[in-house]
Specification:
By secondary structure, the protein is an alpha/beta fold. It is built from 14 helices and ten strands. Strand 1 and strand 2 form a beta hairpin. The radius of gyration is 20 Å and the shape is globular.
Length: 393
């Protein structure tokens, strides 16, 4: 299919091509079937200069704890949840709000995941995404969402999260000319983003997938017996004991260094926020729905039904597990040798799979130096690319 592959070196150096067969000479990015050509760097640099002159001291206003918002899941349960919002620097009633969604199932992860990105957007003089309001929110059973059940008899399903996103999108656009959102999905939030985009095409203007999952989680139905058995174990006292064993600094640090983070800069904040978010053990049921496999399946039909133009973003770095970090993150029934590293899988296979299955995929950007969780760990690398995609997709 005709797609664009871009390699973004830094805010002032962007390389883009519309060809579908390339050879890359950069040893770090080398891949025989890909090639890179440079775009007009002078034009891009001029835009950056104009931005700086236009808004050198501009600071975005933040409206934290917006809401509460309300939604009803597939089982008729009612939820309330909160969100955060950054106002647009250049308010435009026709500019779609940007909604950033994190994985709904990470250990202790909630909307605080987007704090580094929001900080970067609020730096004096930053004009990235200047025309757009930017939002994030807590998924059901995470953060400050209510109620949090002491027990659940059934796992959460992907349509529960899609319905929540539907309610949120309708609420934040109800007084706007543009009733659609631009959706940025990070990591394992992808199934929720795919289902939402396919099911509610009138609510989405553009879809951006950051570090999407591999085909292992998106092109096959999971074994129902294994899913039900795993969830039954996880919601039992054995699952309670497992939760207590992983809500520890040592475990989260080891797991994150093994599977997620590629630099030292973000480790303390990442682990601290995860621990804070996981202190309430009732948030574990979303995580357990994920572990048991209820959020994975065959999404190829959903992908074929998406009408919004889409982009796929990836870093070119992956964590390198050490024996120490493997040992830190080992907990029964997860052995030291467990292959948990979904984000360490070959990015080219993931890119090619999305190209082959998303007919609306128009852009693909590989960000040198960025790891799997670049939205949290390296927003300074992510934002120039996200801004470019929002403007040109």
């Amino acid at each position: 299919m005709d797609s664009r592959i871009g390699f973004v070196m830094c805010p002032a150096q962007v390389m883009t091509t519309k060809s579908s067969s390339f050879v890359c000479t950069n040893a770090l990015l080398a891949k025989p079937t890909y090639a890179v050509s440079k775009c007009n760097q002078a034009g891009f640099g001029l835009r950056m200069q104009n931005q700086s002159l236009m808004s050198r001291k501009a600071v975005r206003k933040a409206n934290m704890n917006v809401g509460p918002f309300h939604c009803t899941d597939t089982k008729g349960r009612e939820w309330t949840f909160g969100g955060d919002m950054l106002e647009a620097l250049n308010p435009n009633p026709d500019a779609a709000p940007i909604v950033m969604i994190h994985t709904s199932t990470g250990l202790g992860v909630n909307r605080t995941y987007w704090r580094p990105m929001f900080r970067k957007l609020q730096e004096p003089g930053s004009t990235y995404l200047a025309d757009h309001e930017v939002y994030c929110f807590d998924w059901i059973c995470t953060g400050d969402s209510q109620p949090k059940p002491d027990r659940v008899s059934e796992p959460f399903l992907i349509d529960d999260y899609a319905k929540q996103l539907e309610a949120f999108a309708k609420e934040i656009t109800k007084n706007k000319n543009n009733k659609r959102i631009i959706l940025l999905s990070q990591g394992a939030a992808e199934p929720s983003a795919i289902r939402f985009a396919a099911k509610y095409p009138d609510l989405i203007e553009k879809l951006i997938i950051a570090t999407g999952l591999s085909s292992t989680y998106l092109d096959r139905e999971q074994n129902s017996f294994k899913k039900n058995f795993a969830f039954a174990i996880l919601k039992s006292p054995a699952g309670d004991a497992f939760w207590k064993s992983v809500v520890r600094w040592e475990y989260i640090e080891g797991f994150s260094r093994k599977n997620i983070l590629v630099t030292e800069d973000a480790v303390n904040e990442w682990v601290g926020l995860a621990l804070e978010g996981a202190q309430d053990p009732r948030v574990r049921f979303g995580v357990y729905s994920f572990i048991a496999g209820f959020l994975f399946g065959d999404y190829r039909k959903d992908l074929s039904n998406i009408k919004a133009p889409a982009a796929y973003l990836s870093g070119d770095r992956v964590p390198i597990p050490t024996t120490e970090n493997k040992m830190k993150s080992a907990r029964a029934p997860v052995p030291i040798a467990a292959n948990e590293g979904t984000m360490r899988e070959d990015r080219w296979k993931r890119i090619e799979w999305h190209q082959n299955n998303m007919r609306t995929l128009k852009m693909t950007e590989v960000i040198p130096g960025a790891g799997p969780e670049f939205s949290f760990e390296q927003p300074e690398l992510a934002l120039p690319v996200i801004d470019k995609v929002v403007r040109t997709l």
